[in-house]
Write a structure and sequence with these properties.
single chain; alpha+beta; Alpha-Beta Plaits; 2 domains; 4 strands; 73% helix
């Protein structure tokens, strides 16, 4: 009987695994894992962003003092930039006074002067051309000189026809302007070509000096913001030294430890940039009325310039970037000293 039972029993073959189902499960778990990791990553950054803002609000006096120091440094650079823009606009109005006066020869008539003026207008280096006839020059001289009766005794008009030429970019390229003066002076119809090039060179030198000064000042104040921001983060890191060490002992990564400090630097830089924008705007509003009154005395249509929308965004971005960069540099050194890397 035992032998017959053994013959009846047959071995059971194991079921074959379904390859397609397992591979599909791996793909689904892989795609889901990437999405979950990305969500966790965003959640960590959002937590660090708002928790760092909350810590700033817990110490309002210290935070406001730090922000004001940073804002003053940023406002100085931004303010000088805006003032330079207004100065360039003012020099643009003064550019109209830098005209080349062409005194034509005595045998040239007003008709000859008009033909010559039309010819000069074709030059690409010329912005505007104005013809002053002999009659107009004599009438103007009579009104402003006070010798009206004496001039009536003259048989002929002694004043020549004058052409006033306004070159392009008189305050940017004095060499081309001088070349234009020399070319116009060599014309057969012209007796004298005159322009105060010394005044143009002096004004151009002053504007160039101001531009370089603004660039240098911006770099110096940027380094000041970096050092102030770095010292602020260093003090906060020292206050939270035990918290950082415990975080490292429980397995926190270097990026996790430095993330809240970087966002703290971001908030300091952002609020400092916004405060600097308010300071510069308030200062320009205070100067607007005196500058417009001064412009009216010189018959200029002068409009005070403020920080534009794009310039304001650049200001906020730069100040925030300086805050993050200053924090990062200090963290790299201080955390290295703690033997956390």
């Amino acid at each position: 009987m035992m032998k017959q039972n053994r013959r009846i029993q047959k071995p059971v073959k194991p079921a074959k695994p379904v390859k397609s189902t397992s591979s599909q499960t791996k793909k689904e778990s892989g795609s889901g894992g990437i999405i979950d990791k990305f969500r966790i990553y965003l959640g960590l950054h959002a937590h660090a962003l708002f928790s760092s803002l909350g810590k700033l609000l817990k110490t309002p006096l210290t935070s406001v003092m730090t922000i004001m120091v940073l804002a003053i440094a940023i406002a100085l650079a931004s303010g000088f930039y805006v003032l330079l823009g207004n100065a360039e606009q003012l020099t643009g109005n003064l550019e109209a006074t830098n005209q080349i006066s062409l005194f034509l020869k005595s045998n040239m008539t007003d008709l000859d002067g008009r033909k010559l003026a039309d010819k000069i207008k074709q030059s690409p280096d010329v912005k505007t051309v104005e013809l002053i006839t002999q009659e107009y020059a004599l009438a103007e001289f009579r009104d402003y000189s006070g010798f009206g009766e004496a001039l009536n005794a003259l048989e002929n008009n002694p004043l020549p026809t004058v052409i006033q030429v306004l070159p392009k970019n008189t305050l940017k390229n004095t060499e081309e302007v001088q070349r234009l003066v020399d070319e116009l002076g060599r014309l057969d119809e012209v007796d004298i070509a005159q322009m105060d090039m010394q005044w143009v060179r002096r004004l151009q030198s002053m504007m160039s000096l101001a531009q370089h000064g603004v660039v240098i000042l911006s770099f110096v104040l940027s380094f000041a913001v970096l050092f102030i921001m770095g010292n602020t983060i260093r003090l906060e890191l020292e206050d939270r030294r035990d918290e950082v060490l415990i975080s490292k002992l429980v397995g926190a990564t270097y990026a996790f430890i430095q993330r809240p400090f970087l966002y703290t630097g971001f908030w300091f830089g952002f609020f400092a940039g916004a405060t600097a924008w308010i300071i510069v705007t308030a200062a320009m509003l205070a100067l607007k009325s005196p500058m417009e009154k001064l412009s009216e005395l010189y018959d200029n249509n002068y409009e005070v310039l403020f920080l534009g929308f794009t310039e304001s965004l650049i200001l906020l971005f730069t100040s925030s970037l300086l805050g993050v960069l200053g924090s990062w540099m200090v963290l790299r050194y201080q955390l290295g000293q703690m033997k956390l890397e």
